[in-house]
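Entry 12.
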Amino acid sequence: MSRRPLTLADLHLFETDERIGEAVLGPERKGEFPKLATLLERDGMPKINPLWGGRYVPAVKAFLDADNGLSTLAPTKPDGLEGTWTPGRSARKVRA
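Predicted 3D structure (tokens):
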């Protein structure tokens, strides 16, 4: 009888590379995660926190999301001051 696959939602806030690897890559490839994570640390992958003994899982997820083109940023509403750009004008005057 096989168990349910491990997901990031199943993990504690700080986890070992082995458990993160299983959640990210699956049980067959979980052993690859420690080396991949170490390589990605120079690009922003969270390092293992020596106090807590693992990587901060929400930060790992945020790194992976951003690395794969997902962002938590949402477009903002215009503030009404955009106006029209006119070449040659150094500054636009805003009337209060």
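Annotation: Residues 3 and 69 are 31 Å apart (CA to CA). The chain has a mean pLDDT of 87.
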